[in-house]
Structure formats: C-alpha cells, structure tokens
Amino acid sequence: MLFHYAILLPLIAAVALGALFALKTVSLLRKIAACTRWPTVTGKVIGTRTESYVDDNTTEATDSDHPHRGPGAETEYTGAIIRYAFSVAGRGYQSTRRYVGRPVLSGSPRGAAKVLAKYPLNGAVTVHYNPANPAEAMLEPANLANVWLALAVAVVFGGIGSLALWLLWSLI
Amino acid sequence: MIAPYVIAGVLLLLAAGCALGILHWLAKAFTMSRWPTVKGTITSSWDVLDGERIKYAYAVGGRRYVGHMVALSGGGASTFDATPQELVEKYPPGAEVTVYYNPTHCATAVLEPRSMKNAGISILFTVAFASFGLLFLAAALRAH
C-alpha cells in the first residue's frame, strides 16, 4: 500500500504542475491578446548584447560514477538583449522587453545571433506600449516563445502524469 | 509498521517549519504595512536594466532619505524575484511612489510592504510537504 502511495505522490505533483502550467499558458495568451492591441510608436535600438549562462554539470562530469559524461555535458544557454528607447507624450522610456514573459534562452547561440541581426544598433523599431503605463512596452507582442514553453511543460507533466496515474489506478 | 508514520511525521514537521517562516514573514509585512507613508520619487536611472539598484528619494521631517528596498526579500535570488525589466516597468525613473518608512528609523523604508511574491517558494514548500505528509498519514492509517 505504502509503495502505491510512494508512486502516487510524485504523479499527483506532476499533474498539479501540469495544471499550473496550463493555467499559465491561458494567462499568457490573454496577455498577448491585450498587448497586440496596444498603440505603437517608433523607437531606436540603443544597445545590443548577448546574455548567457552555463548550466554547471562539472560535478557530474567529474563524478567517477558517471564516466560516460565528459566536460561537454555542460550546456551554455544564450539569449539576445535588445535595449531600445522611445518617447510617449514627450517623456522618454527605455526597455529590453521583446515579448510577453521572461526571455527564453536557447541552447544554441544561433537564435541569439538571429535576433541581434534583426535589431541592428541605432536601427528604428516599432514599439508597442501600454497606454496606461508606457514603461511597459515590447517589440514583438505576438511572439509565442513563452506560450510554447509553458504549453510543453503542461503537456509533458500533465499528460504523462495523468496517463501514469490512470495506469496505476487501473492496476490497484 | 512504524515507517509510514515516521515519513509522515518528518514531512509534516518540514511543513510546519516552512509555515513558521511564512508566519514570521506575515508578521513583518503586517508591521511594515502600518508604517507611516510619504510621497517619494524614483531617482534610479534606466540603468536598472543593467543591474543598477532601484533608488527612491523621500523626505521626513525636513530630512531627505534615499531608499532601495522594494519588498521584503527572502535573501538570495529566486525565479519569484522581479527581473530588472519588471522592476523598471513598475518603477520607471521619475515616477511618484508611496514610501512606507519606519517611524523609529526613517532611513528604513519599503515600497511594497504587503508583497508576498518573495515568500512564494516557502508557500510552495509548505503546501507540498503538508499535502505529501497528510497523504502518507492517510495511507498509514488506512493500512493500520
């Protein structure tokens, strides 16, 4: 019996996590729908850079229990940061937001390079700003990067968790 | 069999520990929310986007102060913390803000005394430990 519960608990947690991310997906879509209706103004790119961090697998990589893992096991995630300036009603603003949600970093630097090429320094950009708070602005309101991420987590955790839960339930 | 009761007990104790942390947080938040308020201005620049701290100026009794605290911090960074981008959207340079200051030490001030965002991780662990602990307890009682 205890064994069943020991398996059941992580599965329930996985389904709960899946449900949370499903709600997050809906909330992101609602926000995107609102942002695409925001007024626009022309702004200027005033800075570009890449931001990266290395997922530190050093411990595992040197662990004698995992000899198959080499130093190449560490992953570098990269994202492009585009800083732009714009004015609304005579007041200047700056932002680095490209789309709804936090920046989604990629395991390949090619994605970041593409973004940097799309927004050259000193280039003009169309800025969508919140009329109630112009400090809240973005360049790509229809970008679904965070929606796909949240949806993937919802499907993986919610879907696999539910399926395993159903299988376990029919076995008990 | 005593093992399930021990597991349930440990999980519930961990939940109680986290809950105590939240209660301590709530007590501090309650105290700060009763501090007197004054109007202030965001004096930090757009370089908050590059990691500069949020800065706001306010005056109490003719003396001028500069505050940095936005909300109670749990210490250390977590995914629940606001990013520089989110901070600057909420507190752009020149914006007028309501500052809650400690009447016995006016240099201590906060902008969001009731914010529970940074307590998110503690709430998450309390709920997780409590629900797992209760489930184990229910399983043990049922087996008994």
Detailed description of the structure:
The complex is a heterodimer of chains A (172) and B (144). By secondary structure, chain A is α+β, with helices and mostly antiparallel strands. Chain A has two domains: 37-141, no CATH class; 144-172. Helix content of chain A is 44%, strand content 28%. Chain A is built from four helices and five strands; from the N terminus they run αβαββαββα. In chain A, β4 (124-130) and β5 (133-138) form a beta hairpin. The longest helix of chain A has 34 residues, at 2-35. Chain A is elongated, with a radius of gyration of 22 Å. The model of chain A is unreliable at 60-67 (pLDDT under 50). In chain B, strands 3-2-1-4-5 form a five-stranded antiparallel sheet, with no helix packed on it. In chain B, 28% of the residues are buried. Helix content of chain B is 43%, strand content 20%. Chain B has 144 residues and is an alpha+beta fold. The termini of chain B are close together. Chain B folds into two domains: 1-35 and 115-144; 36-112, OB fold (Dihydrolipoamide Acetyltransferase, E2P). Chain B has helices spanning 3-33, 84-90, 120-143, and strands at residues 37-42, 56-60, 63-67, 96-102, 105-110. In chain B, β4 and β5 (105-110) form a beta hairpin. Chain A binds chain B through residues 1-2, 4-5, 8-9, 12-13, 83, 91, 93-97, 102, 133, 135-136, and chain B through 1, 3-4, 46, 49, 83-85, 88-90, 92, 94-95, 128, 132, 135-136, 139-140, 142-143.
Q: Short description, anyone?
A:
The complex is a heterodimer of chains A (172) and B (144). Chain A is an alpha+beta fold and 172 residues long. Chain A contains four helices and five strands, in the order αβαββαββα.
Q: Low-confidence stretches of chain B at least 5 residues in length (pLDDT < 50)? A: none
What is the overall shape of chain A? elongated
The CATH class of the largest domain in chain B is Mainly Beta
Using only CA atoms, what is the Rg of chain A? Answer: 22 Å
CATH architecture designation of the largest domain in chain B? Beta Barrel
**Helical residues, percent of chain A:** 40-55%
User: What is the β-strand count of chain B?
Assistant: 5
pLDDT average of chain B, as an integer?
88
Strand content of chain A: 25-35%
pLDDT < 50 stretches of chain A: 60-67
Please state the structural category of chain B: alpha+beta
Strand content of chain B: 15-25%
Give the strand order of the largest sheet of chain B, numbering strands 1, 2, ... along the chain. Answer: 3-2-1-4-5
Number of helices of chain B: 3
The string of secondary-structure elements of chain A, in order, is HEHEEHEEH
Strand order of the largest sheet of chain A: 3-2-1-4-5
Instruction: Return the structural class of chain A.
Output: alpha+beta
| Tally of discrete structural domains of chain A | 2
Count of β-strands of chain A: 5
Percent helix of chain B, as a range, is 40-55%
The greatest inter-chain interface is formed by:
A-B, 19 and 22 residues
